[in-house]
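tool_call: predict_structure(chain=1)
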Amino acid sequence: MSSKNARDDIINFFENVYMRRFAEAEKSLEIVRERRFGDNEFKEGYVLALEGLLLSYRTGDERDFLNRAPFDKKSMEGYKKDFRNFVTGSIHSLFDIGYFMAWSDLVQYRLDTEKKSK
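tool_result:
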């Protein structure tokens, strides 16, 4: 994230989603949509991923990766590595990079919150 304010808004979004405060998460998402960060194509992919995360948490559909994947520390570190490798490993569109960067940021948020809770 290039903007500290955008980063803070995204963390606020993750916190609201994770705590199942969906109305607040939607407000946070709207603020993120209005922020300027990255290229427009990157931002479009990033925001689309956030929208999907919100929908997945809200519905609790066990077919979604987010609701069926183990989120223990070892698994989360593996997901983060995979998402980051996708972003940096080969040629992808800015949209794809933004999309997977949002997933990587979510996993990093979850890792950080796990550290704080111990």
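agent: Residues 4-117 form one domain. Proceeding to next step.
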